[in-house]
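User: New here, any thoughts?
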Amino acid sequence: MAMSRRETEIKLAFPSSRDAASALSAAGATPSRSRTFEDNVLYDLDDRRLAGSGRVLRVRRAGRDVLMTFKGPVEGRHRHKVREEAEIAIADGDELARILEGIGLHPCYRYQKYRTTFELAGVHVALDETALGVFIELEGEADAIDRVASALGKTQGDYILETYRELQERDAAARGVDAGDLLYEEEQA
């Protein structure tokens, strides 16, 4: 049975994956999963009711792993991004897509990234390489996130609380183009 929990996280931008990896190494991060390509699809109703209410239903494929995640809003203001989260492993991603579409949910946004994960001082760390840029995502207890961010040379002013979709929409608006999906033109090695 999947467990519902509160997720507390931030993103930190880095100029390159080499800079991010160097900062993680200097801080003493321990690798926990090698670089893996992830393909993520968000589902919503035709009227975009989930997105409009701050909820997300995501299906993530990473290698042979398929995870379905629900994220919901948490009331109040926080210095970190805080959301309710429930996640479950799925045996057959194609069959799950058929079920979701059968009940009226449709893919509304797709994003891809390469993710390498680490552990550092009780914080789950993900080095994400996206078509938009390189980010380190820190997830854990609020005070531990702050300590790890500091060890990586970052301050609270560097915290990014937006989703990749929100970052992409902001970037696209600044350039006067449609945001579309966040995909690699071709898979990188």
